[in-house]
Structures are given as C-alpha cells and as structure tokens.
Amino acid sequence: MTINKIIKVDDVCWESWQHSEQYTSQQKHIGDAAGCEKIGVTMERLAPGKLSTVAHYHTKEEEHLYALEGEATLLIDGEPHPFKKGDYICFNADTAIAHTLRNDSDKEFVFLVIGNRDKHDVVVYPENNKVLVRAVDEIYAKRPTNYWDADTQE
Questions:
Q1: Confidence of residue 18 (pLDDT cuts 50, 70, 90)
Q2: Where is the Cupin type-2 domain (predicted)?
Q3: How far apart are CA 125 and CA 8, in angstroms?
Q4: Which CATH class is domain 13-121?
Q5: Residue 143 Cα distances to 33, 93, 124, angstroms
Q6: What residue segments make up the domains of the chain, in order of their start?
Q7: pTM of this structure
Q8: 83 in helix, strand or coil?
Q9: Closest residue by Cα to residue 100 from 84, 81, 114, 116
Q10: What percent of the residues of the chain are helix, what percent strand, and what percent coil, each to the nearest 5?
Q11: Where are the alpha helices (DSSP H) in 14-118?
Q12: Residue 114's pLDDT is what?
C-alpha cells in the first residue's frame, strides 16, 4: 500500500490558465501534488473582472466549489448568486445545471474546485453549444445528426 505524502499547499506552484481576456485564472493542482487519483482538488485565483470558465455542467462528474477568500458571482443557469468566503455548493452529475464564477469585485477571489474524475464524463457548454468528450479529450459542436448521414459505404 502506498501512502500519499503530506504537502504544503503554499509550496505548490500557481499555473496560469487563459483562453481569452475574459477567461483567465491561476490554479494550484493540489490534488495532483498530493497523489490523488480519483478526486481532483484545485485551488484557483480569479482576478477582478474575469470568469472561471464558460458555463458548463458534467454528465458523470460531481463538482464542488468552496470559497476561500473574497467574493464573486456564481452564475447558475445564467442567474447571479453572491458567492463569498465560507460559501460552498455542490453540482451533482447529470443535472444539466450550467454554472461558472465571475469576479465582479475589485479584489482577487480564491476558491477550491473538488470533484471526482471520470474518463466517461462529457462536459456540456450550453451557451456555445459544444461538448467536451473526456474519453477522447476533444471538444465538438453539439448538434443532432442522423447516424447514417455520415455513412459512405454502399
């Protein structure tokens, strides 16, 4: 049996994440640093005016958010909710409840993201009609199609 090590969260390096001016943050993958295999634990810093991600939900993964410092706006299916130090919420898998965090304050917002890791998860982004299929680690446009439309065999 392997015993995971105790880590000092302060010793885990911040990694920058950016996909546009709007979607940018810094993250510490503390679960990975501690040797977690089935649960992801990430500390995230969100600067004023930034969004944590495109609003999304998971089909197989449960996602937990816990506010450590500051305050932000938690958008749940587009509806704003205050989310500040000490607040916690869990988004159960396959509930089709899209969520994201937006920092409307003038100070940094720090929070934890915790969730199970499931290679069969599909992340749905309803605002831009896309899906991330974890099994192949690719994003696709979400649009219905007939199975036989792509059949080229005669």
A1: confident
A2: 43-114
A3: 34
A4: mainly beta
A5: 38, 21, 12
A6: 13-121
A7: 0.89
A8: strand
A9: 81
A10: 10, 45, 45
A11: 30-34
A12: 98
Coil vs helix vs strand at 113 = strand
User: Length of the chain, please?
Assistant: 154
Measured CA to CA, the distance from residue 120 to residue 82 in angstroms comes to: 32
Write down the residue that tokens 């080229």 correspond to. 152
pLDDT of residue 150: 62
d(CA 41, CA 19): 21
Residue 88, token pair as written in the block: 């916690």
Backbone conformation region of residue 72, classed left if phi is above 0, alpha if psi is from -120 to 50, else beta: beta
Spatial strand order in the sheet of 15-18: 15-18, 24-28, 39-46, 109-116, 63-69, 88-91
Q: Both ends of the chain: CA-CA distance in Å?
A: 55
Going across the sheet that includes 138-141, the strands are: 57-58, 122-125, 130-133, 138-141
DSSP SS3 for 147 = helix
Banded model confidence at residue 41, pLDDT cuts 50, 70, 90: very high
User: What's the DSSP call for residue 128?
Assistant: T
CB-based contacts of 5: which residues, under 8 Å, 6+ apart? Answer: 34, 35
Tell me the average pLDDT across 49-70: 96
Tokens of 95: 């509930």
Q: What is the identity of the amino acid at 98? A: A
**Other beta carbons within 10 Å of 72:** 28
